[in-house]
Each structure stands twice: as structure tokens, then as C-alpha cells.
Design goal:
The complex is a heterodimer of chains A (509) and B (328).
Chain A (H helix, E strand, L loop, with lengths): L1 H14 L2 H19 L5 H8 L8 H26 L8 H12 L3 H35 L3 H15 L7 H15 L2 E2 L6 E2 L13 H19 L18 H23 L5 H15 L12 H16 L1 H7 L5 H11 L9 H4 L1 H30 L6 H20 L2 H19 L5 H23 L6 H4 L1 H22 L5 H13 L1
Antiparallel strand pairs in A: 1-2
Helix pairs in contact in A: 1-16, 2-4, 2-16, 3-4, 3-14, 4-5, 4-6, 4-12, 4-14, 4-16, 5-6, 5-12, 6-10, 6-12, 6-13, 6-16, 7-19, 7-21, 8-19, 9-17, 9-18, 9-19, 10-11, 10-12, 11-12, 17-18
Chain B lengths: L1 H23 L1 H4 L5 E5 L6 H17 L3 E5 L6 H8 L7 E6 L4 H9 L10 E11 L1 E5 L7 H10 L5 E4 L5 H13 L4 E4 L3 H9 L5 E4 L1 H10 L2 E6 L25 E9 L4 H15 L2 H9 L4 E5 H22 L4
Parallel strand pairs in B: 1-2, 1-3, 6-7
Antiparallel strand pairs in B: 3-10, 4-10, 4-11, 5-8, 5-9
The chains are: A mainly alpha (509), B alpha/beta (328).
């Protein structure tokens, strides 16, 4: 404890030097921008800035780049809430209830809660990172393919509850997403699947073009196709801050989202986007009024937004404690250290205390900067809604195209986005919810990979899923959920889903 | 108004005069505008980390901006294809890895149209060449390669190894050794070098063949051990570690190398400028220190020498790919 405090003092004395403070501020500012701009995500932002950090000292470089990473999680919610266009892939879930709130004139509170939730989640997980990094990293390594597969099976079952509307439609959308996720090279044999000779489809279709297309482009098409122009809701100043009730309803989701996000973020190979889906599903499941979800429930904003911030911080645990990347973004951060001659590994914390504790302290500072930066911005961002559609939408369309292209300098990605936009438009006309498609595209490759890896490990024996304790726990939990779902069939009485449908019906009448 | 017209003509003449020598003696004029370097892998990978310091060094020599463009996808095939079909005028270079020779071979194996051919490219220079090393967990019972091979023979297809993906560098290297030693190991492909190392650290596999610079921190920390290397010589960073060649596995020679390429039809004069510039760039102190920091030793070879090395290496890789065959 005393040692930690001493180290923290060292960290703050590093992070608060004027230079490092400026880099933390710049990182947060760029991160917010990268998050706000649709299509341009943290990966593109960090990749573009990586070369400029070669000239800095390693501590400043990592402070700057990490700032972009967690800063993007703050900014990502902005366009999701205001225009139903995810600023980056992890804000897809925020689109649903955030945008519904905006339509009711509650854009201000949604943005404010997302900033506050992000701050709490960010700070809480830095504390987690500080005290628990080495032991947690070991726990993360124990997560092999069998554990991962079982977790995803459980996750899929939880996600059955994810969105409102028809269960059949949702399942159809998940399956469509899983199908789209099968495109690309078969990682076990090297065969190209469904690529029809397009080499660029070898890696499958990316999450960013799918998310931006399904949500962003389809939203623009839908608005343009409306015979009557939608009324712009002009927010009043007193509507910018959340009400007491909204604050009260957000406390628990922020807590749960932070914990979930942090734990999921630590697991190598998981995308932080998954944490937002699970956080949303959990909030909907535990909510006393699940009928409000999809129609502007503040919990549906608070949970996922906290989760993606906590997950981005959790992803740093294996990276800093073991030198192991959990995803593409930590991999670029590791590269940023390597070019400075620091080989990240299990000795990083011991051998490079200035970097580790400097980064930790800068994250405390950075999260505070982001909160102070984002709260006043709420008022400005909300006013974007006053910009006439004929100016706003072409601008957004342009940003989407440029952003999606920039990720991989790939015109194929732009085409995917366009096709997904048309698909999203059609689906919305028939009242299908596009979020499960995004989920399917994210999950398909990792479920398949972990399943086949696990079977390769056991030489084809399915027993491997029952031989490993963590895997068994997840499978038992999954089985319990299935049995609970079957209960109403055996016993009379209604489960919450039926009650919900009934409640919705009476509401309509 | 009149001065506006005068200026316009003055500019026109100046541009025209500027163009004439460019047209007459093109080789001296190259490069007259920014040059792009395609990296067919994502930022932060080996190719990217070599290309960026190289671009910085070349910029000073050629006096033109050198822009690194990451064009990743399908294990590098997307970027390499783009480079292969680019205009052969010297304004589109590529830093590629040894996998450049593997992919056309895999295409052949599957009987599908090749995304590009090795012959589409002309080599400029070899930049780095790192042999892979055989890494195991600290707790593993094997003391040396002989132990390992003996155990693998006793229980075939039981010992697991992870790789960056099928037909990827880590897979091909390991298969060379497997074939040379006459053993059978169980292959667990992952989605890249990072996940492959994570699988070993987590104890989900028992060994791997990977690049030294990412494993060395773990070896220093004592969580991993190294049994042998794939090079013709021992690594300077690991002088006590024998090579597989020394141990009698002659066919097990593998390098993760990076080189600078241009499309085949690039004019010889342009290639000459690039060769000379690269020769200077690799001995520039900034480039040297950048490579040293990443523990990736520079192994410079000029075009002719590199061409020979590349041909030999490509034969070794092609043989290994055919030995692996189609995976069922």
C-alpha cells in the first residue's frame, strides 16, 4: 500500500510535468475528436499519430496515444445520441436509447450521463489497473480457447434479451450477422470463403464499415426519404442537465457497466464492443421497466457507455503487466513502446516504473480533463441539431466515407459501408433492429476461432469444454438460463418477456 | 490585371523550363514528387516498424517526402497486390516480409488464380533478417532440442504449438523443423503473432517458433525458455542458443526478413537511384539506432545479392508449403 502510494507519487510527478500534461490533454482532445467523427475510430487515430510519437520520449508517447484511446470512448457517444450514427464501433448500443432520448428532447442529459458514466468507469478501472494489474493479468492468461468459447455461448444467450421488438426478428438479424461474419479466409485451412475473388474480403468485412453503414448511412437515407422534414428539437438550457430521477437511475448501471467492461476488457482477444452489448443486455434484464428500453431509457446509455470506457482501460492490464496485446489497439500501443527500445514484457512495471506509473497517473488526469472537456461541450454538441439537415447530412456523409476509407486505405470498405447502408434502410422500413447484425459480425469470427482452436487442442474431443473449470462455470450458467427460459412452458405463469409484451400492448391502446 | 497576366505567363514559363530537363534526363530528376511506401500490414507490425525509420532516412537523401501507407488485409495479399499492379515509375515502393514468397505458392496449392506473382517485383534491398527461435514454457521438462524431439517421437501429435495463422511465418518455420526432425506436432493457429505468444504464456500450447524480439523480454523475465534458432548463425542477442542447423536439422532454416521492392517494370535508372539511396539510408545513424532499439539487427543486402538470397529462400519456403500441403 505504502509502496503503491510512493509509486503513485512518482507517477503524478511524471504526469504533471508541463510537457506530459500537454500530451495528455492533446491525446484526450484528439481522442474526443476521433470519437465524435463517424468512421474514424481510435485505431485509425492512433495509427495515424503513431509515427509522430517516434520523436517523443516513451512516457509522453504512451500518454498521448493512450489518451486518444480512452478519449475516443468519450467522444464516440456524441453522434450516436444526436444522430444515431456511431462515432466508433463501441457506441453502437448507445445509438438505440441515446437517440430515442434525443428525439424526446433529452439529448443533453444523455450526453451528460454518458460523460459522467465514462468518467466514473474510467477512474474506477484505473484504480483496478493500479492495484490488480499483475494478478489480473495471470487470470486473463488462463483464458484459453475453451473458456472463451463457453463465455461467448453464455454471452449469446444473455444477448437474446438484448433489444426490444420481436424475438424472431432479432434472432434473424443475429443469424444474418453471423453469416456476414463468415466471409473471409478460413483461419484453419486457408480457403477463401464467400470472397468471390475479391482479395480485400480475405479478412472478412470490418466492424467499422458495417456499423457506420447500418446505422449512419441508413439514418441519412431514412431522413432524406421522409415526406415531411423531421422537426428539429431545440433543446432549452435547463434541459441540458439530467434530472434527479435520471441521475438516480444511472448510478447502478454505471457501476455494473464499469465492472463488466473492465473484466471483459482484460480477456485477450475480446473486443471492447462486446462489453457494450452485454452491458446493455444486463441492464435490460435487471431493469424494473424493461419496456422503456429502446424508447429512451437512460440506463441503456449509462451502462454501455461506462462499459466501453472500463473495457478500454481493462485492455491495458495484460498489455502493461505482461506485454501481451488484447486487440489491435493495444498492439499499436505496444509498438509505440518498442520503437523506443522498451520491450514490453512481464518486467515492464518493475523496470520502467516511470512509464507505468506515469501512464496510470496521466489516466487519472486524463479522465478528469475529458469530463471537464465533455460536459461544457454538451451544450455545443446539442446545438448541432440546429444545423439544417441539408448542410448537416452531406457533411456527415462525407465524414463517414473519409473515415471508413482512412482505416485501411480501402475503397472496398467504402462499398461495404454503402451496401450496409442500403441494407439498413430496407431493414428499418420493415422494422428490423440492425444492432444484432453488428453483434453477429463481431462474434462470428471469434466464436468460430475459439471453437475450432479448442477442438484442435483436444484433437477433436468435445470433453475439453467440461474439463476446464472456468469453461464449466460458464456452461452451467448458460444451461441455467436456458432452463429458466423453459420454466413458463412447464409451469403456468408468465415470464417477464410476456409481461412486457402485454404491457406494451396496453400502452399502445 | 496586367500584372496578373504577366505573373501567369512567368509561372507558365518557369514550370515549362522546369519540366524540360525532367523530360530529357529523367533519371537525374527522380524523384520530383512525394513517394509512397506501401506496407501490406497494419501499423505497429514488423514491416511497419522497419518502413517508418527507413522512410525518414530516405527522405533526407532523396529530398522528397516519403509517405508510408498501411494497406493491410488477407495476410498482406491486399497490399502486395496493389503494389504489384501500381504504375512502375518509382513513386510506389513496398516494404514486404518473407511471406511475399509464400502466398503465390499457397495460391498454386489451392489451384486458384494468383493474387500476384513473385516475378511482379524487383528487389531493391534486404533490410532486416531475423531467424525465428523455438520457445517453450519455463516449466517444460525439455532441456534441449534432443529431449524435445525424443518426447515428440514418443507421443506423436500430442505436443501443441501455436502460430500466427495457417501458412504464416510461424507455421511454415515450425513445419520445416517438424519435417526435418521427422516428428508430428499439433497445430493451433491463432489470429496473429501476439495471440500466438499469449497462447504459449497461458499454457494452452507448449511451444512456438517466433520472432526473437517479442520473446526476449519473456526469456529475460524467466517465464519462457529458448531451445534453438532457425538461422545459419547463432543470434547475437542469444549467443548460447544453438541453431537447428548445428544440431543436424539442415532443412530448418527460416528468417523473418523485410525488404524493399518496386514493380518489375520500373526503369533501371530509377532502381539505381533507389538502390544508392537505400544503401546510404541503412547506414544512417537514425535508422541504425531505431533498429537497435527494437532489437532487430540490420542485415543489408543490395539488389543483386538480395535477389540470390530471395530465390534460395523462396525455394525453401515453397518446399515447406508443399510439405504442409492442403490442410484437411
Amino acid at each position: 500500500m505504502v509502496e503503491t502510494l510512493q509509486n503513485l507519487y512518482l507517477g503524478f510527478s511524471t504526469a504533471l510535468t508541463p510537457m506530459n500534461f500537454i500530451y495528455a490533454f492533446m491525446g484526450c482532445l484528439i481522442g474526443t475528436l476521433v470519437g465524435v467523427l463517424p468512421g474514424v475510430g481510435p485505431l485509425a487515430g492512433i495509427s495515424l499519430l503513431l509515427p509522430t510519437t517516434f520523436g517523443l520520449n516513451p512516457t509522453s508517447a504512451i500518454i498521448l496515444l493512450a489518451g486518444i484511446y480512452y478519449g475516443a470512448m468519450y467522444g464516440g457517444s456524441t453522434t450516436s445520441i444526436l444522430m444515431r450514427i456511431p462515432g466508433e464501433a463501441a457506441s453502437v448500443m448507445t445509438c438505440i436509447d441515446g437517440y430515442a432520448m434525443a428525439q424526446k428532447g433529452r439529448a443533453g442529459p444523455a450526453l451528460a450521463i454518458s460523460a459522467i458514466g465514462s468518467y466514473i468507469a474510467g477512474t474506477a478501472s484505473v484504480i483496478g489497473l493500479m492495484f490488480l494489474a499483475p494478478p489480473l493479468a495471470k487470470y486473463a492468461l488462463g483464458f484459453g480457447p475453451p473458456e472463451y468459447f463457453s463465455l461467448l455461448v453464455l454471452g449469446l444467450l444473455v444477448l437474446g434479451y438484448m433489444t426490444g421488438g420481436s424475438m424472431v426478428k432479432n434472432l434473424a438479424m443475429i443469424v444474418l450477422g453471423l453469416l456476414l461474419g463468415m466471409i473471409g479466409i478460413d483461419h484453419f485451412t486457408g480457403y477463401f470463403r464467400f470472397s468471390y475473388g475479391v482479395v480485400a474480403l480475405g479478412d472478412g468485412i470490418g466492424i467499422v464499415p458495417v456499423a457506420v453503414g447500418l446505422f449512419g448511412i441508413s439514418e441519412i437515407l431514412t431522413t432524406a426519404g421522409q415526406p415531411k422534414r423531421p422537426e428539429v428539437i431545440k433543446p432549452r438550457l435547463k434541459d441540458l442537465l439530467p434530472s434527479k430521477e435520471e441521475f438516480r437511475d444511472s448510478v447502478a448501471p454505471i457501476g455494473r457497466g464499469s465492472l463488466l467492461g473492465f473484466l471483459i476488457g482484460i480477456i485477450p482477444g475480446s473486443a471492447h464492443i462486446i462489453s457494450t452489448f452485454i452491458a446493455y443486455a444486463v441492464e435490460r434484464r435487471v431493469s424494473k421497466h424493461p419496456g422503456k428500453f429502446g424508447k429512451g431509457a437512460i440506463e441503456g446509455v449509462a451502462g454501455p457507455e461506462s462499459a466501453n470506457n472500463a473495457a478500454s482501460c481493462g485492455a491495458l492490464v495484460p498489455m502493461l503487466a505482461l506485454g501481451v496485446p488484447t486487440g489491435p489497439i493495444p498492439a499499436v500501443l505496444l509498438a509505440a513502446l518498442m520503437v523506443h527500445g522498451i520491450n514490453p514484457g512481464p518486467l515492464l512495471i518493475k523496470e520502467q516504473p516511470v512509464i507505468f506509473w506515469g501512464l496510470i497517473a496521466s489516466m487519472y488526469v486524463g479522465n478528469l480533463i475529458l469530463l471537464l472537456l465533455n460536459l461544457p461541450l454538451v451544450g455545443i454538441f446539442v446545438n448541432f441539431l440546429r444545423v439544417p439537415y441539408k448542410i448537416l447530412y452531406p457533411t456527415i456523409l462525407m465524414l463517414c466515407v473519409v473515415g471508413v476509407y482512412a482505416v485501411n486505405s480501402s475503397i472496398v470498405d467504402v462499398w461495404i459501408m454503402t451496401l450496409m447502408g442500403i441494407l439498413g434502410y430496407v431493414l428499418r422500413k420493415y422494422e428490423f433492429e440492425p444492432a444484432p447484425i453488428v453483434l453477429g459480425v463481431v462474434l462470428a469470427p471469434i466464436i468460430e476461432m475459439s471453437f475450432r482452436q479448442a477442438l484442435a487442442m483436444s484433437d477433436g474431443s468435445y470433453v475439453i469444454f467440461l474439463q476446464r473449470p472456468i469453461s464449466v462455470i460458464f456452461l452451467v450458467a448458460a444451461l441455467t438460463m436456458v432452463l429458466l427460459a423453459l420454466k413458463p412452458l412447464l409451469k403456468k405463469g408468465k415470464d417477464w418477456r410476456e409481461r412486457l409484451t402485454k404491457a406494451e400492448k396496453t400502452e399502445d391502446v | 490585371m496586367k500584372t496578373g497576366k504577366t505573373i501567369f505567363f512567368a509561372v507558365l514559363i518557369a514550370v515549362g523550363v522546369g519540366l524540360i530537363p525532367g523530360m530529357v534526363i529523367a533519371q537525374e530528376a527522380y524523384p520530383t514528387r512525394p513517394v509512397q511506401i506501401i506496407v501490406p500490414f497494419p501499423p505497429g507490425g514488423v514491416a511497419d516498424l522497419v518502413a517508418r525509420p527507413l522512410a525518414a532516412a530516405l527522405e533526407k537523401i532523396l529530398k522528397q517526402p516519403m509517405v508510408v501507407v498501411n494497406k493491410s488485409g488477407a495476410g498482406g495479399a491486399v497490399g502486395m497486390q496493389a503494389a504489384a499492379v501500381s504504375k512502375p515509375d518509382g513513386y510506389m515502393l513496398m516494404v514486404a516480409l518473407s511471406s511475399i514468397s509464400v502466398m503465390p505458392e499457397v495460391d498454386k496449392l489451392f489451384g486458384r488464380p494468383q493474387t500476384y506473382k513473385v516475378e511482379d517485383f524487383a528487389p531493391i534491398a534486404l533490410l532486416t533478417a531475423d531467424p525465428t527461435i523455438l520457445v517453450i514454457k519455463k516449466e517444460a521438462s525439455w532441456k534441449n532440442v534432443a529431449d524435445f524431439v525424443e518426447d515428440a517421437k514418443r507421443r506423436p501429435n500430442e505436443i501443441k504449438y501455436s502460430s500466427s495463422g495457417v501458412y504464416g511465418t510461424m507455421h511454415v518455420a515450425m513445419e520445416m523443423f517438424i519435417h526435418a526432425a521427422g516428428i508430428k506436432l499439433r497445430h493451433i493457429p491463432t489470429a496473429g503473432g501476439g495471440p500466438a505468444l499469449t497462447a504459449l504464456l497461458g499454457g494452452h500450447v507448449e511451444c512456438l517458433s517466433g520472432g526473437p524480439n517479442v520473446s526476449i523480454p519473456h526469456i529475460k523475465a524467466g517465464t519462457l525458455r529458448v531451445l534453438a534458432g532457425w538461422g545459419a548463425q547463432r543470434l547475437t542477442a542469444l549467443p548460447d542458443v544453438p541453431t537447428l542447423k548445428e544440431l543436424g536439422y539442415d532443412d530448418a532454416e527460416f528468417y523473418i526478413w523485410s525488404g524493399l521492392f518496386v514493380p518489375k517494370a520500373t526503369p533501371p535508372a530509377v532502381i539505381k537511384v533507389l538502390r544508392e539511396a537505400t544503401r546510404q539510408a541503412v547506414s544512417a545513424p537514425e535508422f541504425k539506432s531505431a533498429m537497435e532499439k527494437m532489437e532487430t539487427p540490420i542485415s543489408y543486402m543490395d539488389a543483386d545479392e538480395f535477389q540470390k538470397f530471395w530465390e534460395k529462400d523462396a525455394q525453401r519456403l515453397a518446399r515447406a508449403v508443399r510439405q504442409i500441403g492442403k490442410i484437411q
